Here is the input.
Amino acid sequence: MNDETEAMIWSSLPVPAILIDPDENIGDMNPAAEGFFNNSAKWLTGQPIWDRLAVDAPLEASLARAREHGTPLFVNDVDVGTGSRPPLVCNLQIAPLQGRDGWMIMLISPRELAGRMTQSHSVKSAAKSAIGMAEMLAHEIKNPLAGIAGAAQLVSMNLPKEDLELTDLIVAETRRIVKLLEQVEQFGNLSAPDRVPVNIHDVLDRARRSAALGFGAHMKIMEDYDPSLPMAVGDPDQLLQVVLNLVKNASEAADPKTGGVIRLHTFYDHSFRTRRADGSGQSLPLQIEIIDDGPGLPDDIRGDIFDPFVSGKENGTGLGLALVSKIINDHDGWISVDSVPGRTVFRLSLPRYRGETKEKA
Here is the structure.
């Protein structure tokens, strides 16, 4: 095998690969690793590997033993971070580099996308089934509800004041149910996105201004933007609906008296890709994070938060985040959440604009 072929194989590896010299310094890395570190191999080469890579496991001693005995090392399901991106759950494979004494090669296989892909397919399937049934019920229930509310109002005209509380309750509850049914119908009838070039920072600014003047007036909303971020492709109104929903949720989770902090963070990750079952891939380099310092998601619903009718709010409908997930999926994007008390991060990953648009169906 000649040098040119070896270079082609090295560049074609689909996972981040790093060469580690005998002194625990970075000797080289492939393009996938450059994307993972969000930095160039030229700049990182020669730097101590454990200064640039944070692994939630004691690896130094195990790596030293693997180097000494010439054996491979496998570490599964560990958090791996680089300082420039949130940690990802990864599998690590480390093995001696043949022909170079003391050198090791490390392969990093992020597991997050696989989990998110499975979650996305589950959400889409659950949403389709649940909303199909709910739309049918909404159509059948709305007319009788209008009759019940009308009858209660007529009855109230002949009742003494002390008995009006019951009819007022009937009218209020029927209106609440009608509003819920209208939300269900909105979810099911959402049109396909009008794919045009979108400056995602304009969308975030519109959401920030709207929140600051209304539901988020008690919150401090901070901007942490990458000014070099290219245009996204999508429907600006639907993406605004997504961001507004996430910012509103963060605002409602905070203490209404003391408030809290919401950070709108954008960055570019050119290594972020999904792969479909047919082998085709999709690049989703534009990353948008809505970060808050609230109490976090309840443990019992954290894994199902994007499913329809799952809600952590009192009297919540459970349609807001399901709608958010549907919109992002319709944009061929991904959404994930990482939540612990004091820090909740909703992350949106979107494709960049490359000169092609798709009109509404």
